[in-house]
Amino acid sequence: MNESFKILVNARMKKSTKGTSSLGKNAIPWLFVFMWSSGAIFVEFGLHDADPFIFLFFRLFISSLLFWITMFILRTPLPTTSTEWLYMMFTGLCMQAGYQTFYFLALDYKVSPGLLTIILGAQPILTTFISKEKSNITQWLGLFIGIMGLVLVVIDHTAINRFSKIGLVSSFLSLICITGGTILQKSIQANQISNMAIQYTSGTIFFSILLYFFDQKINWTPMFVFSLFWMVFVISVGATLLLYQMIKKGNLTNVTSLFYCVPPITVIFDFFVFKNSLTMLSISGMLLIVLGMILVNRKGKWL
Fold first, then answer.
1. Most exposed: 2, 50, 194, 269, by fewest CB within 10 Å?
2. Other CB atoms within 10 A of residue 191 CB
3. pLDDT, tens only, 120-149
4. 3 state DSSP class of 78
5. Is 75 left (phi over 0), alpha (psi -120 to 50) or beta?
6. HSE of 265 in the Cβ direction (CA atoms, 13 Å)?
7. Three-state secondary-structure class, residue 50
8. Percent of the chain clearing pLDDT 90 (strictly above)
């Protein structure tokens, strides 16, 4: 009798643990979207007191320092071959340096944030084409519905007057960098702590070189310090670690489709922080994005 009771209790405990684990995994994508979407708000605050390249330099420098310290404490192994080192550094240049640099250049050359967001919103489709992962008709339908919703969300904030060819080229280079970096990241099977330490270090070196050639100003106000803190701990450490883990364990099409959710969530943040109102067009776009996400991730794999 006692033995049967123990077996029953153990079975229920295992079922409960499995349910909790599944719930945690399902929450990770939405936690990532929330964290990643908040980045634009804190960048907006931070850029009031610092120029872009020096802001990015300190963000990556502190992030890389944190990961190197963590590696030392945990005694995390480093890559053993030069090929692994070079691969991680190149991936870091795509994800941390190239994407950020061309993003700011596009804005500097008069490409509106809305238009740039639309261009970057093509990442899920571009990733699916390049990575050649199998996607069914339902997923393709979801991808296109999602990008249509993305267009509706940003169209209210888009003021397409005129922009230079350099700005347009920079926009597409930004898209290529984050798409290429995401695909490269999928092939990295090393420990994520050492991987991110190396990637952030390569980004830090890149921006330190830019600082040598460009005069950048910074004002250490409490708001800038808090913005830097948020971008380091929430975005560079928390959100990026979640993204890399999902890329490593999940399906690229499913993971990159999460970026559809970033603009509408940012619009909601914008509404509460800066009091910019939501229009029916934006709300309609958000609903399309949710529908697209459901179709893309039907029986999908996040982790």
1. 2
2. 15
3. 777 777 777 677 666 678 878 887 887 888
4. coil
5. left
6. 17
7. strand
8. 31
* CB contact set of 42 (below 8 Å; sequence gap of 6+): 226, 227, 230, 231, 235
Number of other CB atoms surrounding residue 94 within 10 Å: 22
Q: What are the phi and psi torsion angles at 50 (to 5°)?
A: -150, 145
- Residues 98-124 have a mean pLDDT of 75
Rg of the chain taking only CA atoms, in angstroms: 21
> According to the model, what pLDDT value does residue 288 have?
84
132's torsion region: left (phi>0), alpha (psi -120 to 50) or beta? left
Helical H segments across 47-164, by residue range? 52-74, 82-92, 99-108, 113-120, 123-131, 137-155
Q: What is the DSSP letter of 133?
A: -
Q: What is the pTM for the complete model shown?
A: 0.77
Q: How far apart are CA 119 and CA 107, in angstroms?
A: 13
Tokens 């519905």 correspond to what residue?
145
Q: Tell me how far apart the alpha carbons of residues 265 and 153 are, in angstroms, rounded to a whole number.
A: 10
State how far the alpha carbon of 158 is from the alpha carbons of 15, 162, 166, 270, in Å.
50, 12, 19, 15
Q: Spell out the domain ranges in the chain.
A: 52-73+81-296
> Residue 299: left if φ>0, alpha if ψ -120 to 50, beta else—which one?
left
Cα torsion 230, 236, 237, 240: sign: positive
Which two three-digit tokens encode residue 241? 């670690």
Dist. CA 36–CA 33, nearest whole Å: 5
